[in-house]
Amino acid sequence: MTLRAAAETTGRRIGVAVAYEPLVREPAYARLIQAEFNAVTPENALKWAPVQPRPELVQDQHWQVIFDAASQGRQSVRGHTLLWDQQLPAWAVALSDAELMVAQQQHLERLVSATAGRVRTWDVVNEALEDDGTVSKTALWRVDGDRHLRDAFVKTKALDPAAVLAYNDYGIEARNPKSDGLLRLLTAWRAAGVPVEAVGLQSHLKVGEGPRPAELAANMRRFAALGLEVHLTEIDVQVRHLAGSAWGAEAAQARLLYGWTAACVAEPACRELSFWGLSDRHTWVDGTLGDDRPLLFNDDLQPKLGYYAVRAALLGQPDPTCAIERLPAPKVGAHAGWRSSGGPLQVGPKGGAAAAMVVAGRTEAWQGPVHSVLSSLTAGLPLRAGVRVRLNAGPPAPVALTLRIVDGLGERYVSVASGRATADGWLRLEGPLRVALQGELRTADLYVEGPAAGRELWIDAPSLRVDCEASP
Ligand code: 9MR
Predict the structure, then answer these.
(1) Is there a single domain that holds both residue 292 and residue 389?
(2) N or C terminus: fewer CB in 10 A for the chain?
(3) Mind listing the pLDDT tens digit for each residue in 12-64?
(4) Residue 202 in contact with ligand 1 by CB distance below 6 A
(5) CATH no. for residue 139?
(6) Can 430 be counted among the known catalytic residues?
């Protein structure tokens, strides 16, 4: 099932920011956008600078191509954006304050008229607040107060009454001084009859930093209570800061996306989720913040774990990331990456298990089966590892599951689980992999350690999964 089909089961829009160049040059990009999304946002094509690079030169061709593709794909369009103090044409920046206000109004009136009837939602005002929640006074807003912002909503409504009008910003996903300030502003605007109908929470996210899904949920409630629609408008999740494996970074990203999407699905006022780009090949993050992989599709336009997580959340299903088994079980004749820290590793039937492992001729207590977890371990991703353990004839004895790490901090051992194994049945050893990684992770090996040398230590049912009980 596609994302758009999954979103439609909940009556929501699922959108993507579309860039003109790849849309016209890469058929696979255009196809995927039509197949997977039921809404699009021109990423740049409606901004003032590209639309009017010179006072006498108006360029509508790029957004028109995007609008046409959207109508072909039965996708609604989010207009982005009318009032923003970035992407202003150089000639406009050079104007006096009074002239700039006039030029801005003319631009708004022309663009809203030209697109009227084709835009489902307009981001009328973008990023007009400071972190402390007050209205900014920079570039475009070189005037006091919020008068010009309110006017923009009123004008847009008059020219395109069917469009839903939104205020869009970053850093307002959770309760904080900025979102508090916005709530006060929108409360006042609503009371004064300003036609603001939606709030866009951009959601440029970073694993392990910034708000959690529960905080998003609580904050969305406040805006919903004002009678506003809530839209998650520019979702992407940075991972480049995470030490460890690429798989783990992708899984951590998927966990956050699952929580973010589920929060939207649980909030009746949350009507739209839009991603700020299609694939890791087309993202503003690379150029602005550093090489990253923040989106749902990889460089080859293949779906990532985040894609499946978002789709599952839309369908009300559990996160499939949590069901992925990272530690293979060996078979007779196929060790699946398991090796021995002692004598030869043997695989065969034991105590009802078809393919249990045993290390022959143990001469040290720490000798047992070992498997690398290097391709799974990542800072910021909680994992749980487990095995079943059993001894041969003799008294119960202590056994342990231990992680050996070599990273930028050097070598260290981390206890995962321990217990007393017996000869009568299997003991489950299971625990969290808790380790703060630093620098390059060179080695990460999971050791099953046993009783004194000479005893047989049998291992079965290895597992390593994302710990989905730990909060994303
Ligand atoms: O993704 C956009 C990038 O291609 C542009 O160069 C940049 C400046 O116009 O804007 C980016 O999009 C921004 C959006 O319009 C508003 N919120 C933040 C987005 C990321 O910077």
Answers:
(1) no
(2) N
(3) 999 999 999 999 999 999 999 999 999 999 999 999 999 999 999 999 999 99
(4) yes
(5) 3.20.20.80
(6) no
